Amino acid sequence: MQVFVTRRIPREGLAALSQAGVCSIQQWDSDEPIPRSELLAGVAGKHGLLCLLSDRIDKEVLDAAGSNLKIISTLSVGVDHLALEEIKKRGIRVGYTPDILTDATAELSVALLLATCRRLPESVEEVKNGGWTTWKPLWMCGYGLSDSTVGIIGLGRIGQAVARRLKPFGVKKFLYTGSRPKPESAMEFQADFVPLAKLAEESDFVAVTCSLTPDTKGMCNKDFFSRMKKTSVFINTSRGAVVNQEDLYQALVSGQIAAAGLDVTTPEPLPTDHPLLSLKNCVILPHIGSATYATRSAMSVLSANNLLAGLKGESMPSELQL
Ligand code: NDP
Ligand code: DGY
């Protein structure tokens, strides 16, 4: 059997794949994304595909792969880059990487939240540029978590792990929203299930940790930001498209909300002249939620094992239920 790997991946994952003796591997052996034409040529006739979240696997790619393709293994928990309906129609199985990246992503979410609400990048810059003249009572003040209300959009694996890490900071109340109440998950935080509008109105901090779906696309828009308090802080570590970025820009510029921290944007990378990058109250990271050496290594091994199990017709360690 033949597989196509769309990027250079951690060596542990590639070793698992090559040492299994199950398939021959063709790889786009680069840290940079594969050009579309190379992807279309590379998948042709392959039985398995190991891809990244930056590869759009749509009807064109599936057609180019042809009927041999039986397994797609993505090195991500997010699956919004995969045309799932089309994939299901063709009987292709999908592996992904939930759980093993939850801790790293939750940790980064908390780091981003603290960096944003306590204005860390701005403060570091002031030290370097001479803006730090003396200790001033109101200079570089921000907002703290103590006694706050935190709203989580999407109390899934990562959402719960974020709440668990924020609780010891003295959060007074957790709110969450989603497609349905999850009393078993919410119990640990005594979190209340509320509609999105109420979450916006009552939260001092909003953390977006949901998956990107047709329902969540553009969910954080003008109406949402207009309901938030002027002192509130908004964090997104899910996918950029959950947020209407023009509406976010207006909310930040007009002082409708206090600050935003984004690990994910549209597009990625965000052009260096993007208006959001001109704002002091917007902290932007380059999609590094799961970026610890151990996590990326584990993701590569899991995605290799998903692919191998699928090729052998066995149950995958982590298979997406289509
Ligand atoms: P889960 O499936 O465990 O959680 C997803 C959550 O999204 C669920 O709680 C679900 O709630 C919620 N959701 C779905 N629809 C809605 C809606 N309409 N409104 C509000 N919430 C909704 O996934 P994970 O926690 O493991 O991962 C979540 C996402 O985080 C991934 O899909 C990925 O996009 C992103 N991610 C980003 C990383 C980064 O590097 N920044 C790293 C890892 C993941 P319900 O069950 O009620 O539908
Ligand atoms: C994912 O897995 O979906 C992240 O965005 C990267 O780890």
UniProtKB/TrEMBL annotation:
<dbReference type="GO" id="GO:0008465">
    <property type="term" value="F:hydroxypyruvate reductase (NADH) activity"/>
</dbReference>
<dbReference type="InterPro" id="IPR036291">
    <property type="entry name" value="NAD(P)-bd_dom_sf"/>
</dbReference>
<protein>
    <recommendedName>
        <fullName>Glyoxylate reductase/hydroxypyruvate reductase</fullName>
    </recommendedName>
</protein>
<dbReference type="GO" id="GO:0070402">
    <property type="term" value="F:NADPH binding"/>
</dbReference>
<dbReference type="GO" id="GO:0046487">
    <property type="term" value="P:glyoxylate metabolic process"/>
</dbReference>
<dbReference type="Pfam" id="PF00389">
    <property type="entry name" value="2-Hacid_dh"/>
</dbReference>
<dbReference type="GO" id="GO:0030267">
    <property type="term" value="F:glyoxylate reductase (NADPH) activity"/>
</dbReference>
<comment type="similarity">
    <text>Belongs to the D-isomer specific 2-hydroxyacid dehydrogenase family.</text>
</comment>
<dbReference type="GO" id="GO:0051287">
    <property type="term" value="F:NAD binding"/>
</dbReference>
<dbReference type="GO" id="GO:0005829">
    <property type="term" value="C:cytosol"/>
</dbReference>
<dbReference type="Pfam" id="PF02826">
    <property type="entry name" value="2-Hacid_dh_C"/>
</dbReference>
<dbReference type="InterPro" id="IPR006139">
    <property type="entry name" value="D-isomer_2_OHA_DH_cat_dom"/>
</dbReference>
<feature type="domain" description="D-isomer specific 2-hydroxyacid dehydrogenase NAD-binding">
    <location>
        <begin position="110"/>
        <end position="289"/>
    </location>
</feature>
<dbReference type="InterPro" id="IPR029753">
    <property type="entry name" value="D-isomer_DH_CS"/>
</dbReference>
<dbReference type="InterPro" id="IPR050223">
    <property type="entry name" value="D-isomer_2-hydroxyacid_DH"/>
</dbReference>
<keyword id="KW-0560">Oxidoreductase</keyword>
<dbReference type="GO" id="GO:1902494">
    <property type="term" value="C:catalytic complex"/>
</dbReference>
<dbReference type="GO" id="GO:0042803">
    <property type="term" value="F:protein homodimerization activity"/>
</dbReference>
<feature type="domain" description="D-isomer specific 2-hydroxyacid dehydrogenase catalytic">
    <location>
        <begin position="3"/>
        <end position="320"/>
    </location>
</feature>
<dbReference type="InterPro" id="IPR006140">
    <property type="entry name" value="D-isomer_DH_NAD-bd"/>
</dbReference>
